[in-house]
Amino acid sequence: MTPYSHEFNRVLLGFLLALALITLAAVYWATFGPERLLSRDDNPRLVEAQASIRRGAILDRHESPLVETTVNENGQIIRTYLEPSAYSMTGYYSLKYGTGLAEAAYNDLLSGADVAETFSSQFDQDVLHMAPVGTDIRLTIDLELQSALASALADSRGAGVVLSVPDGQLLASVSLPIYDPNTLDENWDHLVKDPGDPFFNRALQGRYQPGGIFYIPLLISAVMNNADLEERYPDSKQPVVFDDITLVCQRNSARTQMTLAQAYRYGCAKPFADMIDTLGEAKVNEALQFFDFDSPVTLEGFLPGGEEEEAPESTSEITPEPTTDTVIYPFTETALGQGDIVVSPLHFATLMAAIINDGNAPEPHALLATRSPDSTEWRSIEAPRQSLPIMTKPTAEHIAQVMQSTTASYGLYLDGYDIGAYPAIAYAGDRTLTWFAAFARAETGKEVVVVIVIEDSDDLSKATQVGMQVLGQAITTQQAND
Amino acid sequence: MINTATSDLAIEGKHPTINAERLLIGISFLFVLINYVALMIQRPESMAGSLLSLIVWFSCAVVGHLLLNRYASSRDPFLFPITIFLSGWGLVTIERLAPTFADRQTLWLIVSTAGMLAVVVSSAPLRWLRNYRYLWLFAGIGLLFSTILLGRNPSGQIGAPQLWLGIGDINFQPSEALKILLVAFLASYLAEQAPIIRAERFLSGDRFRLLAFPPRVFGPILLMWSLCVVVLVWQRDLGTAVLFFAVFLILLYITTGYVSVLIGGAIMIIVAGVVAYGLFDVVRLRIDIWINPWAEADGRAYQIVQSLQAFASGSVFGQGIGQGAPVYIPVVHSDFAFAAVAEEWGLLGVLIIIACVAMLVLRGLIIALRRQSVPFQALVAAGLAASLGIQSIMIMGGVLRVLPLTGVTLPFLSYGGSSLVMSYIMIGFLIRLSIQDEKSA
Predict the structure, then answer these.
(1) Most buried residue, A253, A318, B286, B440, by CB count within 10 Å?
(2) Whole-number CA gyration radius for chain B
């Protein structure tokens, strides 16, 4: 043994032990680290991973592109929203602020999280570290119709929906004002403070005072309770007063006694108030429960789900302010559309759809088909559930007849189609809004429903004009979709 | 003197050392080439710069190999291939992380290779270091001392340690040169005293005797070592101070054989750490974030937390060059190059680097063993191997939170011209000492 052998061996052993310790630490952080560390909020790689995802495209039912993902010259992934009229449906995607509307509802598909884990995709992601590619989706909306609806409402603040019957496909949905998702990050601070609430989707979230449009559900409840629709009510043109709201007939008539159908035609509240009195609150209330206004109809996943959501809360729900010193008929006020019951355009559209669908309200949905990244074929998506019966078939047919004859008396028509259209005013405090609800049906079986709400307006003719324009376009679209 | 027999074999390409080295360099070339190509595909705009770095690296490898064949054909077959492999990996890593620094590192590689070859070709450098040990050491300490007055930091950051001397854009860190000078000084001095110490130990038979040696024996080296450490502490280069102390302990242990040297030294380091914790903010910071980085993950501990996330992100096989996000680690190209390797080449890459470091230390100690008949040479080899090994362990341990961070670089891999040059010269000395057919000094 040479003089220093022993010491050299010990020094070498010491080094090897130290390196072994370092090896163990490296193995620990490389194997247990991912679970412990990678999901931390302070991991910027999460944002990198998110930013590298090539989200799927969003197209309309005819495969017209609405949203696409491109890669710029710096390798940066850019999400571009191509159609301003479709912003109310497509929503937004932002690394900083999350997702909204369709981008949120179908995020798992668009981000590739839902893509089946084949060996090829796992190899690409886990070994080659390629970013996931999302699934392309086709919405049920028709871009042409969407554009027509947006144009018709361009100067207004409000919402409109077009629903296909009986399948419940949402053909168009517009909410105004709306943000531009292409410049969302830059304008976020300004948008959240905008008094117009562009993040609030009035078509899906807007809970509006129904006002005169509620005569339709009242009519339904009367029929459901076997009320005599030929019964004439005296003093039909007498105003009905609640707090500081006075409901007068919305259209002129010489009649002083009206049936409920006539009261509906002329928009007179008194006969309906008397009907409620006659039938009793309990019966009317029981009938109205079928429409389930307390459980709003919406599109699953489109709207913020909780306090953690980024979108600001709505401040646009129009409800009457309570007062203390005038005549109040609590339930009657509600039943005449000026009380506690508020309703969204989409929800009312499903009620209108039930009228022309044998009493069955379809479940509205917006996803038509998907196409996975490694495929060229579209896979159709079935409707989420069967239609829900909310009234009997005879009731529905009866109401449809009343609505059609009323529409004819207004001089409104579309060649070759049976239409039932109804404009109405609602009061919310010192504000007014106009509704337009209509259906159109053809012998082919394809039918549409249109519901429009225009805020801060009492112009029924404008609502009618806008509504009929959209209805005509909608029925043309339905014919083309056949 | 060159052995003609081995030289003939070298010329005919049949020398086993040369063939082994050629194979290892070939494997290194493949590795570096593949990574450069992958990088160039992702960054076609900087292809020219990358290509130039690759060509320079390959040229250094070839020229180094050929000249070593000519002047040191019976050398250790692993030292140069490992060195060129790690520095090629380092070059491609710097190209990926901080392309603006890659050109500079490439130039330093040329200087480093030249420096290494210079100390291999001639026996004069080792002889000078031995014969003029005080002169060299004082020169090194003088340069170190001058950083107090003339020092600067290449980053230009106010408040950053001023550890460099420079002219224009060229900066040099004197503490790097001092690593070699101190090892040579310690080896020279201890080699002279070794017979006395060994004899005393043999006579006393006590392996755990406390260090009660005559001051005239250890006084000068303690004085020299203390001067180095004081200046380093003054300049807040505490990592290098710990490194010097550790190398000192190892050489002292090898010379004396007393385990008490290591035990006492370890206790002294701990005590010094406790004292420094109270005295120096930087030490307090580093120990606090070592103990619990999670409490300040967004603040003072951001660097170490991101480093650990890099290891987690890389997992076993890594993200691939250019595919990870190690750039989120501050100063990644210098202090945390190891974490960048972990993220992009995974645990596999990390284990390869650890194996290379282990191999360098092992080969250095084997060379030291073979040179025991000349204690100075043995101690120089051991000291240089220990210096490379300890520095690597300090930075790898710091990055992995096994040890507190110390600010030293990972030899050959991290960005740093002074570190690269001095590390290559260390390897040059080891290669020189590994030549089997002659007495080097």
Answers:
(1) B286
(2) 22
Q: What is the identity of the amino acid at A397?
A: E
- Identify the CA nearest to A133 among candidates A373, A369, A376: A373
Measured between CA atoms, the residue of chain B closest to residue A75 is B42
Contact A325, A258 (CB under 8 A): no
- List the beta bridge partners of residue A437: A422, A451
CA distances A6 to A416, B213, B254, B256, B365, Å, are: 106, 22, 9, 11, 12
Please indicate if any CB of chain A lies within 8 Å of the CB of B402. Answer: yes
Please name the member of A8, A34, A36 whose beta carbon is closest to the beta carbon of B382.
A8
Token pair for B317:
């096989």
CB contact (8 A) between residue A18 and residue B198:
no
C-alpha A14/C-alpha B385 separation (Å) is 13
Contacts of B381 in chain A (CB under 8 A): none
Helix (H, G, I), strand (E, B) or coil at A296: coil
- pLDDT at residue number A125: 72
Q: Which residues of B, range 212-251, sit inside 8 Å of A by Cβ?
A: 250
Q: Is B62 on the interface with A (CB under 8 A)?
A: no
- Asked if the C-beta of B191 comes within 8 angstroms of chain A's C-beta atoms, the answer is no
pLDDT greater at residue B368 or residue A72:
B368
Tokens of B401: 């939170």
Q: What residues of chain A, 6 to 65, have a C-beta less than 8 Å from chain B?
A: 6-8, 10-12, 15-16, 18-19, 21-23, 25-27, 29-31, 33-34, 36-38, 40, 42-45, 48
Using an 8 Å CB-CB cutoff, list chain B residues near A21: 397, 402
Global pTM value: 0.71
| Cis? peptide before A177, omega within 30° of 0 | yes
Amino acid letter for position B421? V
Q: How many CA atoms lie within 13 A of B319 on its CB side?
A: 23
pLDDT for residue A343: 93
* Cα of B262 to nearest chain A Cα, Å: 10
| Integer Cα distance of B265 and B245 in angstroms | 8
- The answer to whether A134 touches A55, Cβ cutoff 8 Å, is yes
Residues 6+ apart with CB under 8 A from B325: A44, A45, A48, B310, B313, B343
Question: Helical H runs in B122-173?
Answer: 124-131, 133-150
* pLDDT exceeds 90 at position A35: no
Question: Which of B373, B386, B392, B394 is closest to B438 using CA atoms?
Answer: B373
Predicted-complex ipTM score = 0.91
B357 near A CB under 8 A: yes
Closest CA to B221 of B189, B194, B259: B189
Q: Are the beta carbons of B64 and B116 closer than 8 angstroms?
A: yes
Question: Closest Cα to residue B432, out of B136, B129, B108?
Answer: B129
In the block, residue with structure tokens 């310690």: B186
Q: What is the DSSP string of A264-313?
A: HHHT-SHHHHHHHHHH-HHHHHHHHHTT-TTS----TTTS--STT-SSPP
> Which of A156-160, A260-264, B213-217, B382-386 has the lowest average pLDDT?
B213-217
DSSP string for residues in A423-482: EEEEEETTEEEEEEEEEEE-TTS-EEEEEEEEES---HHHHHHHHHHHHHHHHHHHHHH-
Q: Tell me the DSSP string of A167-196.
A: T-BEEEEEEES---GGGHHHHHHHHHH-TT
Nearest to B152 by CA among B172, B126, B132: B172
- Chain A residues closer than 8 Å to B378 by CB: 4
* Rounded CA separation B103/B84 (Å): 17
Q: Cβ contact (<8 Å) for B347 and A31?
A: yes
CB contact under 8 A, A30 and B378: no
Percent residues over pLDDT 90 in chain B: 51
Contact B400 A25 (CB under 8 A): yes
Residue B180's SS3 state is: helix
